[in-house]
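$ run holo --ligand "adenosine-5'-diphosphate" --emit tokens
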Amino acid sequence: MSNPVIVAIDGPSGTGKSSTSRAVATRLGLSYLDTGAQYRAITWWMLSNGVDVTDAAAVADQTGKPAIVASTDPAAPGITVDGVDASGPIRSQEVTAAVSAVSAVPEVRARMVEIQRAAAAAAPAGIVVEGRDIGTTVLPDATVKVFLTASAEARAARRSGELGGTQSVADTQAALIRRDAADSGRKTSPLAKADDAIEVDTTELTLEQVVDRVVELVAQRRAAR
Ligand SMILES: Nc1ncnc2c1ncn2[C@@H]1O[C@H](COP(=O)(O)OP(=O)(O)O)[C@@H](O)[C@H]1O
Ligand SMILES: Nc1ccn([C@@H]2O[C@H](COP(=O)(O)OP(=O)(O)O)[C@@H](O)[C@H]2O)c(=O)n1
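-- output --
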């Protein structure tokens, strides 16, 4: 039996992290973890419980309260908060607008990182973990690290397609750029490319081409060890 394979996929919003990570995990028979969904889930809990998300001390004080459980099955991703399915509500625009503030709180990050490392350690064949700080902080010894990028225009067009026209492409793009700036500028484990990560610009690539590239990188790394 070969060693578990750990694949870290980081990058800004709309670069294709979730779609790529799920497909790579499915193809390689690995587990899958969406760490953004965990930050969204704790943000949803804070908003639902009347916590002022702009008050870092209040957020820190409540951080240990919600039980957040994420599926690691790429065929059935999902997340519960205190036993309630939160997969839908965590994608609301209210949560999207508040998530960067909550995820910048060091106590929140410490708790999430602990849960994420435990999930990776428990994955039998290995795992694909996607987020903002996986290669730099959560799993710095990952077998393969990928940093996905794409133009702001492509990312906004993709996201606004998903939102089904409820927000204009221009508004979506402005919101993405604001979130990138907040995520890249925070003190604790900001969005960043690890020095040893391979950057893949997905602007002109199909999802299948991106998946092929990542699967190829994993095969190369496995052959080398
Ligand atoms: N290479 C690609 N080309 C075109 N659309 C893509 C590509 N990769 C992902 N998408 C689409 O873009 C949207 C955002 O992708 P997603 O995987 O959720 O990105 P992220 O997790 O980085 O925010 C989805 O609707 C997805 O189907
Ligand atoms: N490893 C991670 C993953 C997400 N996040 C935060 O969670 C937010 C939502 O992440 P996401 O991956 O669901 O975002 P999208 O790219 O899907 O819009 C990000 O904007 C970050 O603020 C983080 O801080 N660290």
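-- notes --
The longest strand covers residues 5-10.
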